[in-house]
Amino acid sequence: MEVRVTPISKCLDKKLKVLGFEVVDLFAIFLTISILNFVFGSTNFKFILVWLPSLVLASTLFFSKRGKPENYLLHWIRYQFSPARFEAFQDPKTWKSPPKNKLRYK
Asked: Which of 36, 60, 103, 104 could form a disulfide with 50 if both were Cys (CB 3.0 to 4.6 A apart)?
């Protein structure tokens, strides 16, 4: 009886990249292009107001994220919006004094 062999990819944990950009980076770049094109698309300075900022953003992301871990931009944004201090319990609304011990020592 022969063993059936199926070829599979050896890089299952590899990042999904398109032209050197992660999916979150591409979303940010295309969102910038679409918003700027919606606002400034009908002007005569379309290249300067739409494409130039988008190309600057793309090159900044490409060169600043070099050597950084996966989803660096997403984690950085979450860090910026997280509270500065984490607490286990909420602050009480009213303060109560602790119960007094009814035993008296002589």
From this structure: 36
Residue 29, amino acid: I
What global pTM score does this model have?
0.58
pLDDT single digits (tens) 83-97: 787 778 877 778 778
What 3 state SS string does the chain have?
CCCCCCCCCCCCCCCCEECCEEHHHHHHHHHHHHHHHHHHCCCCCHHHHHHHHHHHHHHHHHHHCCCCCCCHHHHHHHHHHCCCCCCCCCCCCCCCCCCCCCCCCC
Q: Give the C-alpha distances (Å, rounded to integers) separating 50 from 19, 22, 28.
A: 21, 22, 14
What's the residue count for the chain? Answer: 106
